[in-house]
Design a protein that fits this description.
alpha+beta; Aminopeptidase; eight-stranded mixed sheet; 5 helices
Length: about 160
């Protein structure tokens, strides 16, 4: 099992459609990330996420972040494998932000990716105006890289 003292990560499953929809249609949650999706786009995205999960060696993996004490779904964590490592991304519901859950979940995922999946480098990116994401990356031990070609702030964490 992937997790920490307060959280566990479980693979995204068919029963998570409502939670997935709530995350990707929440304008406040997505304000510094991307425009919220409409219902049709959410349905397509969720179907693709489930197809990814069924692949023998999925390039994209997603986990629901679950609060161990209550069993509440508090966020979603994703990992996209690539030639130069894997990109990580996290969404935590607005009701559960400010509790350190994103940092804790990313740390648990990093341990799993490095120890069990053979990933040597994690990376992420965000809009320059997303100060919360920058703070999260620093807290997680990621090193800042130069901006990418689209002006996104880039970060990386290398395996120990």
């Amino acid at each position: 099992m992937i997790g920490s003292a307060r959280l566990r990560l479980r693979p995204l499953a068919a029963g998570d459609a409502g939670f997935y929809r709530a995350l990707y249609t929440d304008a406040a949650l997505l304000r510094d990330i991307a425009p919220p999706l409409d219902d049709a786009a959410v349905a397509r995205s969720f179907a693709a996420a489930l197809r990814d999960a069924m692949a023998a060696r999925p390039a994209r993996r997603r986990w629901v972040i679950v609060e161990s004490a209550t069993g509440a779904d508090v966020g979603l964590l994703g990992l996209l494998a690539g030639d130069d490592g894997a990109e990580v991304g996290a969404l935590v519901t607005t009701d559960h932000q400010g509790r350190g859950y994103a940092a804790e979940a990313i740390a648990a995922l990093a341990r799993h990716a490095f120890a069990d999946l053979g990933v040597r480098r994690l990376h992420t990116r965000h809009a320059p105006a997303n100060a919360a994401a920058a703070g999260l990356m620093r807290k997680c031990g990621f090193a800042q890289l130069p901006l990418d070609a689209n002006g996104q702030v880039r970060w990386e964490l290398r395996a120990p």
